[in-house]
Amino acid sequence: xSDGTELTGAQAAEQIEAGELSAPELFAAYRQRAxxxxxxAFLWVADxxxxxxxxxxxxxxxxxxxxxxxxxxxxxQAGSRILEGYRPPYTATAVQRLAAAGAPMLxxxxxxxxxxxxxxxSSGFGPALNPWDRSRVPGGSSGxxxxxxxxxxxxxxIGTDTGGSVRQPASLCGVVGLRPTYGAVSRYGMIxxxxxxxxxxxxxxxxxxxxxxLSHMAGADPCDSTCTGLPExxxxxxxxxxxGLTVGVPPQLTGEGIEPGVREVFEATLKRIEALGGSLxxxxxxxxxxxxxxxxxIAPAEASANLARFDGVRYGRRAGDVQDLLSLYEExxxxxxxxxxxxxxxxxxxxxxxxxxxxxxxxAQRVRTKIAEDFRAAYEKVDLIVTPTSPTVAFPLGExxxxxxxxxxxDFCTVPMPLAGIPAISIPGGLSEGLxxxxxxxxxxxxxxxxxxxxxxxxQAIGFDGSAARV
Amino acid sequence: xxxxxxxLYVARLARLRLSEEEVxxxxxxxxxxxxxxxxxxxxDLEGVEPTSHVVQLExxxxxxxxxxxxxxxxxxxxxxxxxxxxxxxxxPSAGQ
Lengths: 471, 96
Known about the structure:
The complex is a heterodimer of chains A (471) and B (96). Chain A is of the alpha/beta class and 471 residues long. Chain A has 15 helices and 11 strands.
């Protein structure tokens, strides 16, 4: 008999509303699945269904939440041993808004430590596994959220995206991942990585669910003064065609470095765009070639400042047996942080240090200006830009951990958008060697409705089947 | 590109006590990452304004009204060591 876990979030909410499905039973079914998780996707699972406000539009359909979000009284560790056992005294705005809308928290999902990583392998709690092939990574940093949704351990999830951390795991796990325009969703209660880039977004089974979660997550927040919300309401997507839409194809993000199987799915997607009535146009994003370099100055620089707060004094882990305050700081951070976090703190501290500041940080900020200008110029000619989300399918665990730079370079399709603050979605485009390939659609700031509509039309045409990943 | 001495200096600035093994590994890894970052130098960025933030907002204000904040017990509740009114730490100078 069906327990409702085969439904998308929107379908489940509809059936609950119609009285055909019980919200507490749905929560219990997912709770059981999440508690029996063999993918290490969850770091914590709720004991019981929280109360759902009467008449809440999402009806009580449970939500998986990346461990980066603070939730009152619930372990919130950002995937780091330095925050082991930390139970915050307050809840992140995005989590609170979704709970109020009727999506109560099912559990906290695994992630790369402090969201620094593209494979989940930097998690302080061991990596989540890819449900398509458990010997492979789920992507990162929101890998636990992506794996949970793909495997059907959760109907939907939220994650955060700094340089691709929602879109890339969505791509590698065959689900939908949306990074909204910077400022659409409050960052209050998100444990900060790089504050000028961090943005929360949904990971879902389909585009409709992404739109639905976004509509309840977004909104101005007095607790985050950079959060403006969206200028127009999110409309549930319903476009069947792409007539009149011009889609830009940038050679810099679609050519060299894309593996053949991914290229094949991407090219088939371009044909579909044309078949749906859209037109393609080559556009140049010349400075995206320097995007990784700029990103790996700006993000670590901000991280080195944000992570200064983890010193063993006010919360989290504290090193024992130290003689003085400086040793307390240094020993706590040495024991609590993993390799990737230390590496990025070192890069950031170096880039901000006296004598190097202008050469590194100043130059990277100027490249950021050029990248934003490239996008602005492109969007004068085209409505959306299409690229593969990741140049590869999910790779084997351990394959790339020995070469940090090689791992960084894999983010080249997703990093330019956050630098410009613009929104982008990843949807499953097909399979290569039995593994999902994500297609990315990016639009100008606050063009979420156009992106969702186009992604929806494309999704219907592609008809991706993710059932092989379900447990 | 970056030598052992610089790695130790930056680690000190960042309050990280790296092990011998980490210092060695970090020296190589940071050098290759910094070498990639220096591809930026190929660009002519003369006269380009830096972007520190994509949201160009200034002076976001709210009414100056008192409102409750976390009480002390909650705020101190996660402290590794506390006397109930403050965070207890070792002396700044004990080891000097």
